[in-house]
Design a protein that fits this description.
Blueprint (H helix, E strand, L loop, with lengths): L6 H17 L6 E5 L6 H5 L5 E5 L18 H28 L4 E3 L5 H11 L3 E5 L6 H6 L5 E4 L13 E3 L13 H11 L6 E6 L6 H17 L3 E6 L5 H11 L2 H4 L2 E4 L5 H7 L2 E4 L3 H10 L3 E3 L9 H11 L4 E2 L2 H6 L1 H13 L1 H11 L7 H14 L1
Parallel strand pairs: 1-2, 3-4, 4-5, 5-6, 7-8, 7-10, 8-9, 10-11, 11-12
């Protein structure tokens, strides 16, 4: 299994790995990550992963909406040239590693590391299966698409440009802990987190690495929200590198009483528990997080990143908006006026009927059996 660079790649890998172990307990699962990955310790600590290796990988930097300007940016050009060398090194490392390991099949979730691993696998004749969570496949999967045994995707296969006879819709694999959150389940999560049963709860998550612009906006409006709702509890997943800065910002802006109602976490391995306990979730428009909250039936405020390649988060968010499945906020508007975010949160916290309506609409995007489908596909490929 290979992928990484974000929680949106790693958590589906772990979900499929766990399902593989259920279906065939004696199977050996090896994870190949990227050297320097900030979340490398997560798969290494997972009980479904038997061995972990890492190889060099490079990133081709391009930003949605920047056009030709990014091609003339010297620092970007230098980094892209350097990372091209990393890809070549990674291909050599991957070729040596795969030649030694000789896996039956490789699952490529996406991310930069998928390029050297996929190209080396193609050279060695080792079958691999790709997976795309977004409507726009990532560049890594597009580069290695030609030699893939099969492309598994989240949306109907007609959305993608892959050959239809090699494309299979499975959804987005989620760990087993994600399921519909009933009133009883919500109460159980709150007991585990020491959140009062009748209190209001807001959960903010910007992805495994955090989202600085969302963090800043949330910190700016928190004094107002905590004053407006004296029974509001907040859990803020800020990303590992942002934990100290965000905690310091809260200490400076909140009084001692209010501060006790705010929890700050750098990385959360059990997001399902916090989202399940929440009344409202603020999130990016990453496909994996949206799929997780869809299965739970949560009311979400979605702030898509406008800069990611191909604008895939904008497309994900638009898809949700068209189905009235989430409240979508423009990042630029949130930055210009943090009260724009505060008003959206306040309105949802006051309107239980709207929260229920959003959660029910979002549920249609949830797939409960994607990890099982993918595990079956991988075993079929391995047994050929």
């Amino acid at each position: 299994m290979t992928g990484g660079g974000s929680g949106g790649h790693i958590t589906p890998i772990l979900a499929v790995a766990a399902e593989l172990k259920k279906l065939q307990p004696g199977i050996k699962i090896i994870y190949i990550g990227q050297k320097g990955d900030a979340l490398a310790d997560v798969p290494a600590a997972d009980p479904s992963i038997d061995q972990v290796y890492s190889v060099r990988a490079g990133k081709f930097r391009r930003y949605h909406g920047e056009g030709l300007r990014q091609l003339l940016d010297v620092p970007t050009l230098v980094k892209n040239m350097r990372d091209s060398l990393y890809v070549l090194i990674g291909m050599w490392q991957s070729w040596r590693l795969l030649r030694k390991l000789r896996p039956s099949v490789i699952f490529v979730k996406g991310g930069f590391v998928g390029v050297p691993v996929g190209l080396a696998a193609a050279r060695l004749g080792i079958p691999y299966v790709t997976h795309d969570s977004d409507a726009i496949p990532g560049l890594a999967n597009r580069i290695i698409a030609k030699w893939a045994a099969l492309h598994t995707v989240a949306l109907p296969r007609e959305v993608y440009r892959y050959p239809k006879d090699k494309t299979l819709t499975v959804g987005i694999p989620l760990v087993a802990q994600y399921s519909l959150v009933t009133a009883a389940v919500k109460q159980q999560f709150r007991e585990e987190l020491s959140i009062p049963a009748q209190a209001k709860m807001l959960f903010i998550i910007g992805g495994g690495l955090g989202a600085q612009r969302i963090n800043d906006a949330v910190v700016a409006v928190m004094p107002h929200l905590l004053a407006e709702f004296n029974d509001l509890y907040v859990v803020h997943g800020v990303g590992r590198n942002n934990e100290t800065a965000v905690r310091t910002a809260y200490d400076a802006s909140l009084n001692e009483v209010s501060n006790k109602r705010v929890q700050v976490h750098g990385f959360l391995g059990d997001v399902y528990r916090y989202s399940g306990a929440a009344d409202v979730v603020i999130t990016r428009a990453g496909a994996t997080n949206l799929a997780e909250f869809a299965v739970q039936g949560k009311a979400c405020i979605v702030i898509p990143s406008p800069f990611l390649t191909g604008g895939h988060q904008l497309k994900n968010a638009q898809y949700m908006a068209d189905k009235n499945a989430a409240v979508i906020l423009d990042e630029a508007a949130v930055q210009a006026d943090p009260n724009y975010l505060a008003r959206a949160v306040s309105e949802l916290l006051k309107d239980a009927a709207k929260r229920q309506s959003l959660g029910q609409a979002l549920q249609q995007f949830g797939h409960h059996d994607a990890a099982h489908k993918l595990a079956v596909v991988l075993l079929e490929q391995a047994n050929k």
